[in-house]
Every structure is written in structure tokens, then in C-alpha cells.
TrEMBL record:
GO terms under cellular component: plasma membrane
Protein name per UniProt: NCS1 family nucleobase:cation symporter-1
Family that this chain belongs to: Belongs to the purine-cytosine permease (2.A.39) family.
TM segment ranges: 49-73, 79-99, 129-151, 163-182, 194-212, 232-252, 272-294, 314-337, 357-374, 394-415, 436-455, 461-481
PANTHER family given in the database record: NCS1 FAMILY PURINE/PYRIMIDINE TRANSPORTER, PURINE-URACIL PERMEASE NCS1
Pfam families in UniProt: Transp_cyt_pur
Molecular-function annotations in GO: nucleobase transmembrane transporter activity
Localization in the cell: Membrane
UniProt topology in membrane: Multi-pass membrane protein
């Protein structure tokens, strides 16, 4: 006989839900969104380290140093320091927002029900999902190109397909990503654990190939592309903010992964071991490889897929492309598909299960890259590179997610004091449908950020958008929650 009321039990600081009919029959619940059982939390610190190695070693990370030197006016040394400091800073919201996922076994959308409301959680979820789908499309472009170059190195006739071959590669890689995530969290854990040492080996191999062709002293001595005599602090702070924004998305939905961690210690150590050093070293490799590319292949090449494609040996191209396919797959599945899969399910858990949500994520990503795919097929002619447009838009868009991170941290640690009603997060009778304090705290900094774009006096608010947004969002949310609680406190005192 099925129990009517759900029961919550605690074991070594980890809580799990024995769902009764009050939760099982709720429209806010399905099996994929349910809290993980303690026995299902099998990821230790090395699995989480491998997760971050797998996500960090990717084409966008490789290009970060070049972005900071070309567009933010930093020297190579300043750019690499900005990347290292940014990833140490972003560890703070990553670790803090991972806490409720580990303790209660809940994914990101369910945690948001506490701060934005049972229905209101869908708004920040869909904002996060759209960013992820865009990045999914871009990363799939890189993976599809790697498949095209791999097949071209194995089958001579494949090269003649040109853009059509790239589109075929895109669709193959697209389907492979969806297949991995549909298989579940254990499949992702296996992929990340397998790929991490392979990706480190790729980095070492590229470094060995490049080092004889670059002078580190000359590289570090290249002057910054900023006005002579200009202070470094403003340029460095803007670059730092952009680099924090690189993982701003994951700092929100980290509960999607920490819900599988064995303990808080495992999730903390795994993130410390896996993120800052990997990002720093692979971005450094990108700077070195780009500098060496002129001597290696005769032209400056800023992405590793195209650079390796210039190698004359088909065997080495095939091996390198196979490893890059694994690298991009490990990044894409974890960083860009898991979150929207959970976010789309949150809309209607009884209607949208994991498989449907994964397919919806794939469809949105495909639509966002449709213009670029049609260009490669020769069906349209355009000078606009959507890859560049989406990259710029998504990086700027990510900075607007700062308020959500601040709100989540304040809600869990200061307002709820690390105590959530686990069963109540899956029903309609504990938390409000819409928590307007969350929406006001999110809306004010976003509006100010957008307004600051047209003001020289307040341009700093946009330049440091992640910091200003997360701090202001958290402060406003705390103030609104305290004000809302005051009347009940006064009434009880009387």
C-alpha cells in the first residue's frame, strides 16, 4: 500500500525523500527530477575533478587568452592571471550553490522553487536553458568540424564534400551528444572519467609540438593593445569580469551535478582540484599554440581544430581529431545539455520526461545554428558569422545571470538557513507559486545593467556586470525578505 505523506530521512548530513502520494501525484514531480537517493550519490572528489577537467578543456577555453589580449587590451601575462583569478573567484558561487544539491539531492530547477516560486522558477530556468542551447549549438559546430576533418584524414574522397561534410559531421556529433545524456548521469560520469586523462595527454602533446617554435620571453614581452600610459586596472577588471562570466552559467546549475556527490567535502575538493588550474593551463596552451602557429603552419590560427587540420600527416590528424571529438563531447554533454534538460522538464514534469527534454534541447540548438548550417550547404550567402555573433551575445548574456547566483546563495544560506522543505519543493502548498521578491531582486540589476550601456558615467556597472549584478541581486533579495517578515514578527510580539 502506497504511503500518503512523504517522509524525509537524514543520513550523515545527506537527506533523502521517501515519496508518498502527496508528491508522486503532484504535477511538479517526475522520476528524473526527484531527489537522488543516498545510494545514488556515487561521485567522489576525483569524479568531480574529472568532470571539470572534461568541461574546461575545450575550444573556447583555448581561445580565452587571445580574446583578452585582442579585445581587452591585456598583455599575455595579465591575460593568464585574469583567467586564473577569475576561476578562483567563480569557485565561491559554484561551491556555495552546490551545497543544497549535495545535501538534498535536488537539481537546479527544484532549488530555484525556493527563491523564485514553484511556477516562477521556470523564468530563470528558461533563461539559463536558452544560453545553454546556444552554447550547445556552437560546441556542436566545433565537434562536427572535427568529425569532418577526421573522416577527411581517413577517406581521401571525403574532403571533396566541403561544407556538406561539415554539416554531416554536425548532425553525427549532435546525435552522439543527445545519446550520452539520454543514457543518464552514470553515462556522463563514465565519459568524463575516461576523457580527463586523454585530454591532459592532448594538451601535453600539443605543447611538445609547439614549444620548439615559440620563445616564451618574446611572448611575455609583447606590449598590450591599450592606449600608452593607460592604467592596467580598468582593463584587467573588465577582462576579469568577462572570464568570471565564462562559468557564470554553471555557477547556477551546479546542483544538477552536486546532487550525485558523496559528500560536501567531495564536491568542494573536486571543484578546487578540477577548475582553476585546468582553465589556466589550457588557456596558457592556447596562447602558446597561437603564437607558434605561424612557424608551424605558416599562418596565425587561433583554434586547435583548424590548427591540427593543417598538419600534413593523415595519421596524426586522425588521432588528434578523435581526441578533440572526445574533448568537445565531454564539455558539451555536461555543460550544455544537462541543464536545459532539467530546465525544460521543470515546465511540466508529468508531460516532459528526460528523453523528451533532451530532444527539445537538441532541437533548439539545431534551430539556433540553422543559419550557419544553411551557409555551409551553400543554400544561403551571408557575410555574417553566426558563430561569432552567438559567442559575443552569449558571453554578454551570461553576465546578466549574476543576480540569480546572488539570490540563490542568499536564499539558501541567509533566509532559509540551509533548511528546505524537501517534499514541499514538489508540491503547491508550501512555497508560493511566484516569489516576487526573487523577481524584483533579479529585475532591478538587469535593468540597471542594460541602462548603463548608454551611459558613460555608469559604464562600469556593465563592465563589472557579474560582480555588480550578483551583489545587488543578493542585497535586494535579502532586504525584501526581511521587510516581508517584519509584520509577522511584530504581530507575534503583540
Amino acid at each position: 500500500m502506497q504511503q500518503i505523506r512523504s517522509q524525509v530521512t537524514e543520513r550523515d548530513g545527506l537527506f533523502e525523500l521517501e515519496a508518498g502520494s502527496d508528491v508522486l501525484d503532484s504535477p511538479r514531480y517526475n522520476h528524473d527530477m526527484a531527489p537522488t537517493k543516498v545510494r545514488e550519490r556515487t561521485w567522489n572528489k576525483w569524479h568531480i575533478t574529472a568532470l571539470w577537467v572534461g568541461m574546461s578543456i575545450c575550444v573556447p577555453t583555448y581561445t580565452l587568452g587571445g580574446v583578452l589580449t585582442a579585445y581587452f587590451g591585456l598583455t599575455v601575462g595579465e591575460a593568464l592571471l585574469a583567467i586564473l583569478f577569475a576561476n578562483i573567484i567563480v569557485l565561491i558561487p559554484l561551491t556555495l550553490n552546490a551545497f543544497p544539491g549535495t545535501k538534498y539531492g535536488i537539481p537546479f530547477p527544484v532549488l530555484l522553487r525556493s527563491s523564485f516560486g514553484i511556477l516562477g522558477s521556470n523564468v530563470p530556468c528558461l533563461i539559463r536553458a536558452l544560453v545553454a542551447c546556444g552554447w550547445f549549438g556552437i560546441q556542436t559546430m566545433f565537434g562536427g568540424l572535427a568529425i569532418h576533418l577526421f573522416l577527411g584524414s581517413v577517406f581521401e574522397g571525403w574532403k571533396s564534400l566541403g561544407g556538406t561534410g561539415e554539416v554531416i559531421g554536425f548532425m553525427v556529433f549532435w546525435a552522439l551528444n543527445l545519446w550520452v545524456v539520454i543514457r543518464g548521469a552514470e553515462s556522463i560520469k563514465w565519459l568524463e572519467t575516461l576523457s580527463a586523462p586523454l585530454l591532459v595527454a592532448v594538451g601535453i602533446g600539443l605543447l611538445v609540438w609547439a614549444m620548439p617554435n615559440v620563445s616564451m620571453s618574446e611572448l611575455m614581452a609583447i606590449p598590450a593593445k591599450r592606449p600608452e600610459g593607460a592604467s592596467v586596472y580598468g582593463y584587467f577588471a573588465a577582462g576579469l569580469t568577462a572570464m568570471v562570466g565564462f562559468w557564470a552559467t554553471l555557477s547556477l546549475n551546479i546542483p544538477d551535478f552536486s546532487r550525485y556527490a558523496k559528500s560536501q567535502k567531495d564536491q568542494i575538493l573536486g571543484q578546487i582540484f578540477g577548475l582553476p588550474l585546468t582553465m589556466f593551463l589550457f588557456a596558457s596552451l592556447g596562447v602558446i599554440m597561437t603564437a607558434a602557429s605561424v612557424k608551424l603552419v605558416g599562418v596565425t590560427v587561433s583554434d586547435p581544430v583548424s590548427l591540427i587540420g593543417h598538419i600534413q600527416s593523415p595519421v596524426w590528424v586522425a588521432v588528434a581529431m578523435a581526441l578533440i571529438i572526445i574533448a568537445t563531447l565531454s564539455t558539451n554533454t555536461a555543460a550544455n545539455i544537462v541543464s536545459p534538460t532539467n530546465d525544460f522538464q521543470n515546465i511540466a514534469p508529468k508531460v516532459i520526461n528526460r528523453t523528451k527534454a533532451v530532444l527539445l534541447t537538441g532541437l533548439v540548438g539545431l534551430v539556433l545554428m540553422g543559419h550557419e548550417l544553411l551557409k555551409k550547404l551553400g543554400l544561403i550567402v551571408s557575410d555574417v558569422s553566426l558563430e561569432t555573433v552567438y559567442s559575443n551575445w552569449l558571453l554578454g548574456y551570461s553576465s546578466l545571470l549574476g543576480p540569480i547566483a546572488g539570490i540563490m546563495v542568499v536564499d539558501y544560506f541567509l533566509i532559509k538557513k540551509q533548511q528546505l522543505d524537501l517534499a514541499g519543493l514538489y508540491r503547491d502548498d508550501v512555497y508560493p507559486a511566484w516569489n516576487w521578491a526573487g523577481f524584483l531582486a533579479f529585475g532591478v540589476p538587469v535593468v540597471l545593467t542594460l541602462l548603463s550601456l548608454g551611459s558613460d558615467a555608469f559604464s562600469w556597472f556593465y563592465s563589472y556586470g557579474w560582480f555588480t549584478g550578483s551583489a545587488l541581486g543578493g542585497i535586494i533579495y535579502y532586504g525584501l525578505c526581511v521587510m516581508r517578515a517584519q509584520p509577522s514578527v511584530v504581530k507575534s510580539a503583540v
